[in-house]
C-alpha cells in the first residue's frame, strides 16, 4: 500500500501519567550532563568541603581523645569544635558557590537551544503544559544541584546525629530541618535564575555568562549601593546575601546587626523569584517566530 | 590599515547599537548614576540641615557610655530625631544631633547609652576613598570584565552561533586582518563605553563637593587622578578583550575560561605575590591612583591571609599589559588562520 494513502490514526497506546510526564525530560538530560567533563570535575571538587566537614564532625565528637582536651580541657577549643548553626551556615555558604558554578555550566543548555531552534512547538504539541515544561527543566537542575547541596548536607547532619548523643539531636533537630528548607529554597532560586537566563538570551554561551553576571554583578552592585549611599538595604539586591540571611534565621544564627533581617530578605527573594518566573513565562510561548 | 578600519567600522555598529549593548551601557553607567544620586541627596541634606538646631560636639562627647537617656536629654537638649524600636528583646532608642558639620547618633539599649556614631554631611576624603573602592572592586573586577566578555566573545563565537562567520571568511582579506579589525571594533566600543563611564562617574563624584574642596582638588590631583582612572578602565578593555576574543576563537564554550579567570581574579589578593602578578587585575590596580580601603566586614582570619602584592610601576604595568595582549592576539591570529567552520557542532 502506498504510504500517502495511509490516513492519520490516533495513537492508542498507553499514556504516561500526567503527574510523572515531566520526568521524561530529566531522564534524557541527566546522563548527557553527567557526560560533560567540566560538570564531573565540579561535582568531584564540590565533595572536598563536605569531606572536610565530615572530618571536623568526627573530631568534634571525639574531642576527648585530643591530648589538650582529655581532662576537662580548654573551653575555647571546645566551643570552636562544637557543631551548631554557625557550622551549618558556613557549610551551606561554601556549597552554594559550587551550586552557582554548576548552574552556570548546566543551566544555559536547558532552554536556549529549544528557543534558538524553534523547538518549543514540538514540546507543546505533546501533552505537556508550560508549567510542566518549566518543572521538567527545573527537575534537571534540582537533581544536579542536590548532589552538591542537599545530599552532602544531609550526610554531614546524619553523621553528626549518629555520632553525638540523642540529647544533641533533640536539641538541634531544627538544624537539619533548616538546612533542608534553606537548600530547597536556594535550589529553586538558582534553577529559576539559570532557566530565565537561558530563555532570555537564547545563546547558550551568553546565557552562561549572564548566570555568572547575575550573581557576581548583583553582589558587587549591592555593595557599592551600600558604600556610595551609606545605607544597608543595598544588601537585599544581592541574592547571595538575601538567601544567607534566611539561612541564618532558619539555623538560629545571628546575622549582622545593621544589615536587613530575614523577613525583609525573604520578601525580596520571593519578589525576585516572581519576576524571574514572569520573564520565563513570557519567553516560553508555543509559537514559531519567523523573522 | 584601511581594511582593518573598514572591518572595524562594520563591527562597531553592532557593538554600539545591538540590544545586548544596553546591558554593557548599564554596567558602565551604574556607578555614575549612583554618584549622581548621592550628589542630589547630599545637596538636599545640606539644605535640610541648614536650619536645624546645633548642639556642640564637645557636649555630646562628654556624655559617658551607660548614661540613661533621660539624663542625656537633659544635658544635650532636644534631638533632631528620636526613634524608638524593639529588636532581639531589647528596647532600642536612637537620638540624632547636629553639630554644624556632623550628624551624631546616640544609640541606647534598654535606656542606657551604648554607642555614638558620627557622620559628616559630606566628606571629600571619604568620598574619594569610596570612589577608589567602587572603581577597583566593582568597575574593573565586574563591570569591565563582564562588559568585555559580552562584547569580545560576540565577535567570533557569536558569528559562529549565528552561522554568519563564513561571509567574513569569503571576503578577500587575510584572516589576521579580520581578527585585528574585529578586535579594534571591540576595543574602540568597550574603551569608549567604559572610559566614558569612568569619566562620568568621576565627574559625578566632583559635582556635589563643596567649592573649597573642589578648588583644592582641581588645583592638585584632579586631572592626574581622572586621567589614570580612565586609562586603567581602557587598559582593562585592552587586556580582558584580547583574552575573551581568543577564548571565543579557541573554545566552543568560552564561559569555562571566563569562569576560571573570574575566580582567579577574585582570589587574587590571597595568592602569593608571584601568582598575583599573573592576572590582569594586578596591573590595573597598580595604575589606579588611590588605594581602596579594606572592607571592615572582612573576617579577621581572611584579613590575616590577605596580602596584596606591591604595585608594579605604572609604565611597567602598561607595557606588561600591552605585551600580554600582543602575545594573546598573536596566538589568536595563528588559530584563526587554521580555523575551519563546522556550524553543525554549535
Overview in brief:
By secondary structure, chain A is mainly alpha-helical. Chain A has 13 helices and no strands.
Any overview of this molecule?
The complex is a heterodimer of chains A (291) and B (346). Chain A has 291 residues and is an all-alpha fold. Chain A has one domain. Chain A is 70% helix and 0% strand. Chain A is built from 13 helices and no strands. Chain A has helices at 24-34, 37-45, 48-61, 75-80, 85-106, 108-116, 120-124, 130-146, 150-163, 166-201, 204-229, 239-251, 262-283. The two termini of chain A are 40 Å apart. The relative contact order of chain A is 0.12. With 346 residues, chain B is of the alpha+beta class. Chain B folds into two domains: 2-42 and 123-345, no CATH class; 50-120, Beta-lactamase Inhibitory Protein, Chain:B, domain 1 (2-Layer Sandwich). Chain B has a four-stranded antiparallel β-sheet, with no helix packed on it. In chain B, helix 9 (222-250) packs antiparallel against helix 12 and helix 12 runs antiparallel to helix 14 (314-338). Chain B starts with a helix and ends in an 8-residue tail after the last helix. Classes of the chains: A mainly alpha (291), B alpha+beta (346). The interface between A and B is medium-sized, with 27 and 34 residues.
Amino acid at each position: 500500500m502506498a504510504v500517502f494513502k495511509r490516513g492519520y490514526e490516533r495513537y492508542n497506546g498507553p499514556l504516561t501519567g500526567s503527574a510523572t510526564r515531566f520526568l521524561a525530560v530529566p531522564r534524557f538530560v541527566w546522563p548527557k550532563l553527567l557526560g560533560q567533563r567540566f560538570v564531573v570535575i565540579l561535582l568531584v571538587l564540590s565533595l572536598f568541603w563536605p569531606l572536610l566537614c565530615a572530618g571536623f564532625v568526627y573530631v568534634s565528637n571525639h574531642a576527648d581523645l585530643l591530648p589538650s582536651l582529655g581532662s576537662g580541657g580548654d573551653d575555647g577549643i571546645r566551643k570552636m569544635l562544637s557543631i551548631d548553626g554557625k557550622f551549618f551556615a558556613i557549610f551551606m555558604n561554601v556549597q552554594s558557590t559550587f551550586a552557582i558554578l554548576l548552574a552556570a555550566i548546566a543551566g544555559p543548555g536547558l532552554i536556549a537551544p529549544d528557543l534558538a531552534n524553534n523547538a518549543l512547538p514540538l514540546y507543546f504539541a505533546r501533552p505537556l503544559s508550560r508549567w510542566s515544561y518549566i518543572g521538567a527543566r527545573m527537575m534537571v537542575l534540582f537533581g544536579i544541584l542536590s548532589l552538591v547541596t542537599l545530599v552532602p548536607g544531609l550526610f554531614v547532619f546524619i553523621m553528626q546525629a549518629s555520632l553525638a548523643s540523642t540529647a544533641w539531636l533533640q536539641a538541634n533537630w531544627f538544624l537539619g530541618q533548616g538546612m533542608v528548607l534553606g537548600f530547597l529554597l536556594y535550589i529553586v532560586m538558582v534553577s529559576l535564575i539559570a532557566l530565565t537566563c537561558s530563555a532570555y538570551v537564547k545563546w547558550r554561551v551568553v546565557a552562561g555568562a549572564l548566570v555568572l553576571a547575575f550573581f557576581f554583578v548583583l553582589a558587587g552592585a549591592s555593595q557599592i549601593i551600600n558604600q556610595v549611599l551609606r545605607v544597608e538595604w543595598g544588601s537585599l539586591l544581592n541574592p547571595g546575601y538575601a538567601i544567607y540571611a534566611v539561612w541564618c534565621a532558619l539555623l538560629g544564627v545571628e546575622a549582622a546587626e545593621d544589615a536587613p533581617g530575614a523577613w525583609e530578605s525573604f520578601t525580596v527573594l520571593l519578589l525576585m523569584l516572581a519576576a524571574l518566573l514572569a520573564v520565563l513565562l513570557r519567553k516560553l510561548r508555543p509559537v514559531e517566530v519567523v523573522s | 590599515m584601511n581594511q582593518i578600519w573598514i572591518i572595524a567600522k562594520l563591527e562597531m555598529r553592532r557593538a554600539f547599537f545591538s540590544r545586548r549593548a544596553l546591558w554593557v551601557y548599564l554596567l558602565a553607567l551604574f556607578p555614575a548614576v549612583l554618584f549622581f544620586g548621592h550628589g542630589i541627596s547630599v545637596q538636599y541634606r545640606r539644605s535640610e540641615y541648614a536650619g536645624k538646631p546645633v548642639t556642640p560636639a564637645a557636649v555630646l562627647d562628654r556624655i559617658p557610655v551607660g548614661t540613661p537617656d533621660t539624663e542625656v536629654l537633659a544635658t544635650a537638649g532636644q534631638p533632631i530625631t528620636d526613634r524608638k524600636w524593639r529588636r532581639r528583646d531589647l528596647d532600642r532608642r536612637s537620638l540624632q544631633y547636629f553639630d554644624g558639620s556632623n550628624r551624631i547618633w546616640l544609640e541606647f539599649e534598654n535606656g542606657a547609652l551604648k554607642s555614638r556614631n558620627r557622620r559628616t554631611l559630606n566628606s571629600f576624603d571619604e568620598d574619594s576613598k569610596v570612589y577608589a573602592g567602587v572603581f577597583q572592586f566593582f568597575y574593573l573586577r565586574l563591570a569591565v570584565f563582564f562588559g568585555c566578555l559580552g562584547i569580545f566573545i560576540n565577535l567570533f563565537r557569536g558569528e559562529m552561533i549565528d552561522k554568519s562567520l563564513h561571509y567574513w571568511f569569503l571576503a578577500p582579506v587575510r584572516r589576521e586582518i579580520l581578527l585585528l579589525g574585529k578586535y579594534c571594533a571591540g576595543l574602540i566600543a568597550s574603551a569608549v563605553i567604559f572610559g566614558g563611564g569612568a569619566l562620568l562617574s568621576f565627574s559625578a563624584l566632583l559635582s556635589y563637593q563643596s567649592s573649597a574642596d573642589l578648588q583644592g582638588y582641581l588645583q592638585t590631583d584632579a586631572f592626574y587622578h581622572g586621567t589614570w582612572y580612565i586609562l586603567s578602565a581602557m587598559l582593562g578593555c585592552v587586556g580582558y578583550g584580547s583574552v575573551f576574543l581568543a577564548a571565543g576563537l579557541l573554545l566552543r564554550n568560552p564561559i569555562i575560561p571566563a569562569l576560571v579567570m573570574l575566580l582567579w581574579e577574585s582570589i587574587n589578593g590571597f595568592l602569593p605575590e608571584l601568582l598575583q602578578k599573573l592576572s590582569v587585575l594586578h596591573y590595573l590596580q597598580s595604575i589606579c591612583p588611590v588605594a581602596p580601603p579594606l572592607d571592615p566586614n572582612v573576617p579577621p582570619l581572611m584579613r590575616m591571609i590577605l596580602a596584596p602584592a606591591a604595585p608594579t610601576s605604572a609604565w611597567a604595568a602598561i607595557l606588561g599589559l600591552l605585551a600580554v595582549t600582543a602575545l594573546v592576539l598573536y596566538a589568536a591570529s595563528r588559530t584563526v588562520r587554521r580555523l575551519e567552520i563546522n556550524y553543525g557542532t554549535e
